[in-house]
Amino acid sequence: MPFKRPLSSHTSDDSESASSHDGPSKRLSSPWNIERDKAVLVYILRAKIHPETMSELAMLVENYKIERVNKSHQGSSVVSELNLELTTDVEKADVIVTATNMRQRLERHINWRIAKTKAIVTPLWLQDSVKSGRLLPCGSYVAVRDSEDETSRNQDTSSGNSFYSPSGAEKEGSWQTEQDELIDAAEVELLSHNAKYSCLRPSPLVCPNQSLVKEIDIIRRGRNIEGEERSMVSYSRAISVIKAYPRVITEHNIQDIRKLPFLGEKILSMIEEFLKTGRITEAQTMLADPRFQSLSTFITIHGIGPYTARRLYGLGLRTLEELERYYEVKPGVSDEETMSLLDADASANTEAAAEQSIKIGLALRHDLSQTIPREEVEDINRTIMRELSHIQKGCKSVIAGGYRRGKSQSSDVDIVVTHTDWNLGSQKVKGLCRKLVQRLHEQGFVTHVMHLSGFHEHNVLRTHHWDSLEKALTVFVWPHNSSQRRVYRRVDLIFAAPEVFWTAVVGWTGSTMFERDLRLWAKQQKGMKFDSSGISRRHDSKLYHPRTERDVFKVLGLIYIHPTLRNADA
Ligand code: DCP
Ligand code: MG
């Protein structure tokens, strides 16, 4: 199992509430042709904007609005004049924010007849306006060459000096994950945010209702640690539906939310409470509960799931220090016995191995709970592939997991490997996982193997999927940039035959809810079985061998969804 994410602090980590705008807020004469107190309607064109940036822009507006309303309610004398409102109706918009700099591209999404009546600006205009607390003149932020005149004309610049000089305005724009293509906006338009399966919905990393999602996720986590699986899945589903909802939920549009799937009365009343107070009582009560705190902390340790956490709690253990004493572990010190898993057969799942992995997780928890930046994830992949090339030439890898979904920090590294030879690759990757881990250990990169599983040779008919992957869940050690000290990282290696490589990549890209719904969709709607080790047809066990990631979606009868739009979990 992949390493569990460390528990983040619940009190002050809410990036949305933490955002503050300390730009000038004294009243300034507006350069805009807009009545005082009437909001400037902003339409953000999704195309070419990374989903995360898209969400950030949306939240920028929303947070600013909330802050402004709060100040106004508190009778503050420094209420900013900047009054922005997001709109999804481009015809009503005053401003179009876009990362596209060519008229032709823009016209693919917006009729030029409409566009040319608006100010068309780069995302930096929005960021700078919010930062400075006033509507900046659009002339300095023109996005599309042809629209230069219109943009300046559509905003009365008579009283607006170009007092702000943008830097790097053109930098915002296309974004690409390593080895991934750009998001195809037209394809995204084909998806539906209110579909029943999350594999039919576009789910960005950060959504416009992220603080609500985080609050509901506390309750989901509570159900998870108590083993209330059904209830936990209900909350996961509710979260995934909100993740895909493209607008900020307010008291005014709550009626729209009622039409979304999987949002029952209970969740709806929680959402209403959240809109009124910014909190959900049940979530806050949970956070304050010592049992929730202990169990949540316990499951951050690799190998400790909710069941084991409850068992340990039942023994009277409450803190990680108490677990250390119970398991006789010294922080930072971990013997390297578990490399013996390399020699063992399928013994990886024995009780002793499970306990061993808890001990490693506990001993190394201070390192393993640190998140890993993208560059380091890439470095680790490069190092591993370099070592692999000494054993077998012609292999390729894709970094999957949260990294591929666009997370800036990962809790572990998930690498899927195959051989580029479609016909002979299957033979070439066989046994490679174990050999690679052995070499990585000899070279001093891998210190522990927490789990190792491989092809099951006896299953010659390959009636089950799981015989086509080899997996090693390892601890990788690595010199840390900022110091001489070495740092331990969790690295999962998944070796797949070429026929199931793309299925494995999809299966390990996640997110968890997206995967759950892929499996459900395949079963309920297509009479197929999907998991990370293969796709088959249920009635005759016919196996499918997609040659690309798009093929995986095609075989399953799905519209392709870019990895960064598969963030169906909190
Ligand atoms: N996955 C899965 N079922 C498994 C193992 C993995 O569905 N048994 C999928 C879902 C995960 C992805 O693989 O999104 C990788 O698992 P991780 O636990 O590493 O989670 P992420 O990579 O998504 O996030 P993190 O940054 O916490 O590692
Ligand atoms: Mg991961």
Tell me about this structure.
- This protein is an alpha/beta fold and 570 residues long.
- It is 40% helix and 12% strand.
- A 5-stranded mixed beta sheet has the order 6-8-11-10-9.
- Among the domains are: 40-164, BRCT domain (Rossmann fold); 195-291, DNA polymerase beta, N-terminal domain-like (DNA polymerase, domain 1, Orthogonal Bundle).
- The longest helix is centred in the N-terminal third of the chain and has 23 residues, at 51-73.
- The chain has helices at residues 15-18, 51-73, 103-107, 112-115, 123-132, 148-153, 185-189, 210-225, 229-244, 254-258, 265-277, 281-288, 290-298, 306-314, 320-327, 351-363, 365-368, 374-391, 401-404, 425-429, 432-442, 498-509, 512-526, 549-555; strands at residues 40-44, 84-86, 95-97, 119-121, 372-373, 395-399, 409-410, 413-419, 446-453, 469-479, 486-496, 528-531, 534-537, 543-544.
- The structure holds 2'-deoxycytidine-5'-triphosphate and magnesium ion (MG).
- 2'-deoxycytidine-5'-triphosphate binds next to α19 and α23.
- 2'-deoxycytidine-5'-triphosphate binds at residues 1-2, 5, 401-402, 407, 410-412, 414, 508, 510-512, 515.
